[in-house]
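Bug: token stream looks shifted between consecutive jobs. Job 1:
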Amino acid sequence: MNYQELYDLWVEKAAGNEEIAAELAAVRGQDKEIEDRFYRELEFGTAGLRGVLGAGTNRMNVYTVGRATQGYCDYLKAAEAAPSVAIAYDSRHKSTEFAEHAASIFAANGIHVYLYRQLMPTPCLSFAVRYFHCSGGVNVTASHNPSKYNGYKVYGPDGCQITEVAAKDILGRIAETDTFAGVKTVPFAEALEQGTVEYIGQDCIDAYLKAIGGESLLPKDAPRDLKIVYTPLNGAGISCVPDCLNQNGFHNITIPEAQKSPNGDFPTCPYPNPEIRQALDVAIACAEETGAEFVLATDPDCDRVGTAIKAGGEYHLITGNQMGVLLLDYICRMKLESGTMPKDPVAVKTIVTTKLCENVAAHYGVELRNVLTGFKYIGEQIRGLEEIGQEDRFLLGYEESYGYLTCPQVRDKDAVNASLLICEMVCWYKNQGKNLVDGLQEIYEKFGYYTDKVLNFVFEGAAGFQTMQGLMAALRTDPITEAAGFAVESATDYKNDETGLPKSNVMQYQLAGGTVATVRPSGTEPKLKVYLSACGSSAEESAAVVGKLEAFVNGWIEAHK
């Protein structure tokens, strides 16, 4: 069917859903709007679904969620005689509705459901899958996307996001499912009464917090007198982060009222991403009022954390690349000092994450493994170590987009885990009369001055999707041999070259002088992302190289879009 025929079908079949029917009626005759809603189905991959809320095949709604859930049910039932799943959700619009709708479908298919009673962080879903020995799990979230988005992330029995193989199998079963007639369901209240759906109790949450507390590295007698401002950005971190910090000796925590309560509109920061300073503005203002030494901000599903450190009278944002390097250095120092460094330690990063951590890892004798973008690949590395009885070798997994993990009982990035370690690290530096900015400067002086920057080019809608596809094709058909005066020494096509990693639509360029440029379409947003990394003898030198490359990239995109 073409997009207009699909629209007509939905008008007919979704007539019983007042909200969807009204939305479809409101766009009648608007060809571009209808095309955008129906030109494709939301892509289902290893990250599940993610898209704008609304009516249509290219939108997040009860029908797209229902069809995906039925496909997942069919996959689970083909694999196991008595499957079970865990479900969590964040503060976004429709999250509770989608979670309960999915639970009703699982129940109708004879699959037992463990459902969090209240919104909970993404890592709590990963933990619950393992805690209850589930066959898989679902988390209803769109992470750090704007408020118009929601998503549906699918997990395997190991607590990782599903593998490429599983995603392909589930996708095939989704394709066989009729959106309107092929989805089994029972009333949610009935499933609860019958016990097919049961709420997750405090025992699981307590076990999770205990596991995270077990990652503590600061000596028990070390001072923990920090003034902290923490913001959950109106999201799911509101209970677990303060509880974890309090249980581990951090009691002076202020939460800005404007960002304390769950709110899917995210009224103080339309783009609730802790990578962006605007998202931290409210918390920084609160820190200035209270005299707090630093700020922690977690995104709506609490799997990413951003930080602002007071140094020289101002609050400095620490980037994801910088925080990962600081954490790796801190973890290694503390484990060596306490005699708990494992034999043959392993850390894992993504291919777009700064090369500076390679120098730090080498200094401490840590094996650093590179994986594709997506924390599922880091989780797979932990699973591989677990399978050979060596999960204690795992020190840290991190990606430049503010995701970190040290607790192997969780298999996704964990802002609760990271918040605890960051607070301890701030204390460790403070007890030496230093701050994280000082620590970062020491690392630069020892291992090289790196500047890392991510460029985001937004291409929305059907036309934007085609533009991104065209830009990636142009990189392959018309190879770049020189960029901003730097010769391209080698180019790696992760879609076609044999890299030892799964195939992925990524191009990476090694330029003269050790500079790296990587290009990939985002898997969760309508963006083309370009990652630039350069090293120099000074911060100014490396920043100048990145500046030249940024100008080159902007010009290339403009000429080829």
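Job 2, same session, no restart:
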Amino acid sequence: MLKALRVKNFILIDSLEITFPAGLVIITGETGAGKSILLGAVALLTGGKADASTVGPASDTCVVEGEFDCGADAALEAMFEELDLPWNEGRITIRRVVSTSGRSRCFICDEPVSKDALGAISSRLVDIHSQHQTLKLSDPAFRLSVLDAYAGCAKLKEQCAALWKKLSQERKSLEEVSATLGRMALEKDFNELMFKQLDDAKLRSGELEELEAEQKLLSNAEEIKLSLVKAESLMEGGQEAPSVSATLREVSKTLSKLSSFVPAAEELSERLESSKAELEDILSEITSLEESTEVSQDRLEAVEARMSLLYSLLSKHSVRTIDELIEKRDSLSDTLYNSDELQQRKEALEKSLKEIEAALKEASEKLHEKRAGAAGKFAAAVTKSLHSLSLEGAVFGVELETAPQSATGTDAVNFVFSATGDRPVDVSKGSSGGEMSRIMLSVKELMARYTAMPTMIFDEIDTGISGSVADAMGSMICRMGSDMQIFAITHLPQVAAKGNAHLLVTKETTQQGRAISKIKQLDSQERVQEIARMLSGSKITPEAMANAKSLLQNSQNQK
């Protein structure tokens, strides 16, 4: 229930702090006093629309805060746990701050939350019934939710909704896999050709660099061989000149003979011997190079053909290295292999869809059976309630129709009504405003009983009602107040007299000429005065006072 409400700088309300009792709380006031403003403040706490027009002149923001006592509500506690919010044993504070920019911030137990989260939680705390909400009787979703609440379909609906969500996800996955397979089928021949070319090429990392070096060698093989032969000839000498090695040997001997006279000559001789050994090794390597150098036009052509193939593949695939070509080949291989995996995935999804569809069909059938079993009882309960509201000959009916499969099953619900009991038609077509109000109140009474809503607010639900009907409607609202907290904004004294508490909204003008709204809880004498005003208008007569006392006394006796 709503324990307290604090409002600052909200439209015509400068500052307001008020506590509320349990049971039926009546709110009255003259037209234009600000009753709808108070309701608008509560609506903000339920995630209602916020804009800059709600901010008063006192500052750049307005603040609305409500304290709720939720008691033991396991489902609501689970929502708090899911949102990582403090439960505080069901004592909850909701705050909404709106700025002149039109932006708003939402807080639950001082923790910032999204507007969607606020709406989800507050929908389990407060139900606001405005005077135009009778239009919801024509809303298919509302009609279905009302019947489901009465029939106790919560768990089946959760199961059905979960299966529908899973079915939608699997269908989306199947569409994506099928689309991918379709694209792959179109590209399959091309990908297979590309892969075969790369696979047949027997690519090897570093091969192109090796071929380029070999091609350079083969292209200059004749010149290289001639140069090596010449170098070898110069070092080996001939008939006219000794070899370099023989010359160095003779020089070394000559220097060795001088060593007894010139000691340094011995060291020079040894260095020449070392150089002689190095030169002989160089000659050996020149000879080896010359012998290994082949002049082969066939090999040159083979190397250049291989290089041409590799260059062509690099260009075709827009890459720069053989390693990148290898990656491309492997990627094509994975793509061709993945098509088999995707096909298996598609088959698994198709099998899963059939299983989910079967489970959803079974859940929907159980849901239909439960709704069908409750429809007649619900219609009878509403009809009985309407009879107590001076519609003795009225008939209310609930009709189930088959609808396309959805998260709520395969049912659509119609509410039909006849004030005389003859040929009931859709409630939105065959009911007057007063009849619609009574139908909605009867439906709300059942909702309050079966949805365990802690607080319900009626905003002038008695519009178009008077006399004995108003008294009966007040009695019904009063009965609802014995099980839950009810706020009733009313212009009817018969309804106002039924409340456990009575709040009066007034409008005053400040010294600065600004109109402000205020609210106060009336004591017993003030309550008599207010009901007398509602009976007689601005001039309260003794007769009106007596009538007001009588109404209050009768209401107390009926409790």
